[in-house]
Design brief:
Structural class: alpha+beta
Oligomer: single chain
Radius of gyration: 25 Å
Number of helices: 4
Distance between the termini: 73 Å
Helix content: 55-70%
Shape: flat
Strand content: 5-15%
């Protein structure tokens, strides 16, 4: 992508438009396609890595952050509705009683739940992609580590059965 000669706001807009949805994580803006850039307008702008393993890890981080934001939005909205209902339940007789949550507010909670479930699916797919794109040497290492853990668990069970 040619960003030469553009002002920082123009560069950022062109980069954002080219890479789609994004989220801010630790001073970096992660994009859904694996691109990333620093929040600092003069900072680095990185196209998606050609290495599938690295790219899938960035996408995983993007999905985790989006999932966390969606979950937080759901929890805050649900807590607000729950608090509103508790206030009503605890109110005595009063001149201007608090109204229960509207149907729209409850529908919004349902929509937020759908959003969380959607991000959970995307997060699971991103985890699968990371696993599928893992270099063979790491897969071999992980299998060896798991076998070693199993041997240790078996040894521990055998040792604990030896009693005085």
């Amino acid at each position: 992508m040619d960003l030469e000669g553009l002002s920082p706001p123009q560069r950022i807009k062109k980069f954002d438009d080219a890479h789609g949805d994004f989220v801010v994580v630790d001073g970096w803006i992660l994009y859904e396609d694996g691109a990333q850039r620093e929040v600092n307008p003069w900072g680095a702008m990185c196209e998606p890595p050609l290495d599938d393993c690295k790219c899938s890890k960035i996408i995983l981080n993007f999905c985790e952050a989006k999932m966390n934001l969606a979950r937080e939005e759901f929890q805050v909205h649900k807590q607000n509705l729950t608090t509103q209902c508790r206030v009503i339940a605890e109110q005595g007789n009063c001149n201007r009683p608090t109204q229960p949550p509207s149907k729209e507010a409850v529908e919004k909670l349902k929509e937020l739940r759908k959003k969380v479930l959607c991000w959970q699916k995307r997060l699971n797919k991103a985890r699968e992609a990371v696993e599928n794109n893992k270099p063979e040497r790491l897969t071999v290492r992980d299998v060896a580590c798991e076998q070693n853990r199993q041997k240790a668990a078996n040894a521990m069970a055998e040792i604990e059965e030896i009693k005085i």
